Batch of 2 targets.
Target 1
Amino acid sequence: MTENLLDARAVRVQFGGLVAVNDVDFNIPTGSIVALIGPNGAGKTTFFNVLTGLYTPSHGQVDFDGKSVLGVAPHKIAASGMARTFQNIRLFGAMTASENVMVAMHPHLKSGVLSTIVRTPKQRREERDARLMAKELLEFVGIAGVDDEFAKNLPYGDQRRLEVARALALRPKLLLLDEPTAGMNPQESATFTQFVHRVRDQRGVTVLLIEHDMKVVMGVSERITVLEYGSKIAEGTPQDIRSDQRVIEAYLGKSGTEAAK
Amino acid sequence: MFTSLVERMQPTTDNGRTFARYSGILAVLVVAWLIPNYIATSTEGPLPLFTVVLCAVYALFALGLNIVVGFAGLLDLGYVAFFLFGAYTSAWLMSDFFYQVNPRDPSDKQFSFSVHFLSTASSKIAGIHLSFWIVIIAAAAIAAVAGLVIGAPTLRLKSDYLALVTLGFGEILPEVFRNGDNVAGYNLTNGTKGIGPVDRIGMGFLDKLPGIPSTIVSSDYKTKYYVILLFCALFMYASIKLRDGRLGRAWMAIREDELAASLMGVPLMRTKLWSYAVGAIAGGVGGAFYATIVGTVNVDNFTFSFSIIVLCAVILGGMGNVWGAVLGGVAITWFNYTGLVYIGAQVNKGLGTHINLKNYEFMFFGFVLVLMMLFRPEGFIPAARSKQLKKADKQVQSIETAGVES
């Protein structure tokens, strides 16, 4: 096992003249919970998209679990242990909660076309186990019993949880959560903080989250990286970040910080 | 209705439902057996046997396209390509077209071996003559490979673009076959003259069973019907099992959200190619069978309208529903080949008019499509999931309106 599960060096993403991510160095120690924060449009989601293989950076290097992910197809990166949720929930609406979770088991299941058609004992066993595992994951994220509900029909909070269950079905080493508490009330957010710890401690999953709710960020993360206009402006423990002048400026603006004085 | 019982999401251990499902399937089988024996007529009337056989062929096509369009959500407007490959496979391997192989006139002899294998054709006839059952496997394989070859470049495109490019392929391939009578000096397709006659279907050891001949003569539509029914049943079974398995889930995930699917570890190209290949197999088998029932293969049979008719069958029947695809294929084919003419004749008899309804075929077709889209856009037999989703939507709607009114 490498010390850093993820190692990104000098990553730069450019859309025409716009530099969305500007030479960012970033790493995630194995087994940690790390947050990526910054004002809207700072390039956080773009950075996620680089990690998961949707964008190829203009230059820079991204190593995940000791191997480069640049130019690797998204489904291969996912299968190698990087799972994510989405800022705007992207579930498979017309599929049940259980099926949603089982889709993400795709790389781990073996049944081919022929064994599925003739339903070999091995294929049946695999399907049964997959269904049980889906049930377990739904229980783990706290939505037990919704197995046969269509994802589209679930309440908003349950959809967020289902996304996490689906991501966990990939058996990830690294879980990327893109604004997981968006739209949650304070109680739900507080429960979520505990939940992230549970994911790390019980499942051994390293977590990286993008988050706007500072209470959540400060409560959950061991290390925080702050982006502004695509550049990294600060990095450190929650205490460091809280007192960092540049971060306060980025969030409140210069005049805001002066007024506060 | 048997459909709501048969068409379900997940295999369940609930005995009541299992019983209902099997009795539903039994009922369908009984009806399928009754049709050629008691309901259909030989030539005249509302349901001639020839039309019944064609209905079953189109049901098979609709089943195949349903995998691509219904399950994986890929709009394919070039399904005719697989029909064409299947039919030509029959023509090549079951006729005297390649007479150079095993010629009657020894001076023509270019190959020293004779290719007659379990065939119904006399060994004195020139050409390649393989057993129909081998040709079916060959046709399935050739169509599947064609699916992969056509799919590899086109499936990188999305939605409308995919539709356009597949349409292009559906137009190009018949032209290639039309001009295939002189490929570097070799005649591969016989051009516009077509290839025929295609050999009959041999039933092999099955002729020991009562009522089954050793060779299906051209007028024996009853046995032909049983053969195509067998293919339909096999393909339905395979469709349902695939839908409920690992691959089916991946297809559906791609249909719902391609990007999310790939980020959940579903390989997009490979999964889409599988849908193409499996769908193509039905087209190839249907095409090979079609060639044996009509006896000749002519490039004029393979038109764009074929792709559209099969697509309409899938949409009318209920996208993503196996029983819907069958019903859609049967209904459209019946109207096309017999329904309109028969209804027209009845109307003319009743009113003393002389209207040829067949001339207004596409008018009725369009009319039915508009009506369906207005009143039942999910098709005759919608997939169980779209039915339940619609119900949930209605509930939400009624709650919302109730909230507004109160």
Target 2
Amino acid sequence: MNELKFIDEYRDSQLAKKYLDKIFQITTRPWKIMEACGGQTHTIVKYGIDQLLPAFITLVHGPGCPVCVTPVSKIDAAIELVLRFKVILCSFGDMLRVPGTSMDLLRVKAQGGDVRVVYSPLDAIRVAKENPTREVVFFAIGFETTAPANAMVADLAKKQGIQNFSLLVAQVLVPPALAAILSSTASKIDAFLAPGHVCTVVGYEEYEALVQKYKIPIVVTGFEPIDILQGIIMCIDQLENGKLKIENQYTRSVKKEGNLIAKKKIFEIFDVTHQTWRGLGNIEWSGLKLSENYRDLDSEFRFHLSSRFPQSENENSDCISGLILQGVKKPLECQQFGKRCHPDHPLGATMVSSEGACAAYFRYRGLFRHE
Amino acid sequence: MNSSGEGSCGLPFVSSPSVLLGHGGGGRLTQQLIQEVFRKQFTSTFLKNEHDSAVVPVEKGLIAFTTDTYVVRPIFFPGGDIGKLAIYGTVNDLAMAGARPHYISLGMILEEGFSLEFLQKITQSIQLAALKCEVEIVTGDTKVVERGKGDGIFINTSGLGSISHHLDIQPSRLQKGDAILVSGDLGRHGIAIMAAREGLEFETALESDCAPLSFMVMDLIESGIELHCLRDLTRGGLASALNEIASTAHCEIEVVEEQIPVHILVQGACEILGLDPLYVANEGRMVAFVPEIQALEALERMKRHAVGSGARLIGRVTSDPIHPGRVLIRSRIGILRVLDLLNGEQLPRIC
């Protein structure tokens, strides 16, 4: 591994102070800015960026944790595949702790289910080749960021004729979810920090349309403290000066058109479909499913699961994760935070994964308040 | 090579390349295993009696007694192996009580079919580690479990050490103002193990930090440092150790993120895998709580030892006992936040 550079530069305290001073200088009115991605939420809460901003700048946390928004029905399907159909289920690590209706995959594993953590979908293909007599399922979840690699393994499995491999797909798309949030009157967001890594893959042309339709500035932003502060400055600058455009803070990674090869691959393999989001409900055309040509690789089709697991679900009625994902409420406003709802026994979407807003508050703030 | 000899006690030892159930049966195969593998390496005079217990002399004062079990996978990893770990780990646990380690017991659970060549290598590594720490293996036990009922090899070691000073080293001795020193950069062991583990294919030049801390601790004590508390940083890393101590001591601890040493390769691996180095395992690192006035002297002492050459002052105890204790960390951009215990194991993130 080469030495990783250009990380510390984006966590520099002097530079952060300079940007914070600038934010104080240019801000004259209250503004509410939503960061769309869970990775950004994580950085904001971990470094305490929200606490350093002027009191009237509110950061609210968006729907951008793919693990959190994966519908319960898909987790139940994954569990069913392991326990009933005895498949080898390969999954990204942080999906294992997320509770389905009655249990999570870690518990399934402890009961003897063959659940394996993989770091790349290609590892799941390798598992399938090594176990030709077993059915191997890859739990293909994520935003546009994971879609190209997941598309690639579907393509590879088809081309190589791997018969014992399929994908349980729960891919979601960010712009339709942002549009849903902006259409709701409750959230009253003034500006967006768009997710840098999603835009690295698909570019930001779709976000440009959101700017025009909803009259809201959007800044494509990275994930380090300095990125976030720069993104906030760019948003406030637009808001204070009545500008309205898409801007790109994360130029070291994002191009307007995105990664054309990756985009092409996604839409070769997947079709856009309606999708249920945990905590947000059904959002039209906000997900991806394997296209007709790849149907044999769809675990739900292969194991006839779709009728057993209708895509509708309700969170616990005491859980406000839907409102948190829309930026209407913040984690500490929840009566159940840290009490009935805890990372060990989460009530809903935003507490289930470490990337979720409630889990980030719990981890980095605990029940600690500044005196 | 004869591998058809399951249960065929009495076959010459060299005829099997791997552990047989009979090696744990108490019969001739067991004797062969003891003589040809263990006794070849372990030469303590206390073993010569071949008695049910080792009878050892003890110095005046207090005895420290500890036990730990080692189940690491893979058993050989960059910078070490399960045998070395089983000695250093237990030696370090004794050192954390301020004890000078003397005697170690060695219990092994072997899985039927485990390579005898590996077992010999591990035994050799155990003996080398024991020599380095100046401890003796004085008693031991081997059991063999059926194939599929174990994971190759599990090792348990217990250790006895002596305490001849008057320091009372434990969390309840923490005082407001105490300096917190860490003996070196964090996370090497955890990342080296992960890199060597099947399924996670990345190459790194990192080696485990696995090392004995006892000589450095003895030096600190002998040079008159009033150690209030010591803790070796194993599973769960620095963050978990600090939380355990804060919780037992009912104190508030504050550390400064920028002062906490992390090697750039560990940082890089953690960035890629979505891990926090403060929670990654170490096997040759410790934190020391010392009176503020002795902080620099202690730091300078630690740096004289190879295992302490990267020692740093990372924070302070900031309160008298309160309830409950807690650990705070000052982030790089200046804000204080909670540094909490993890909920379960650290799992690599999706993106």
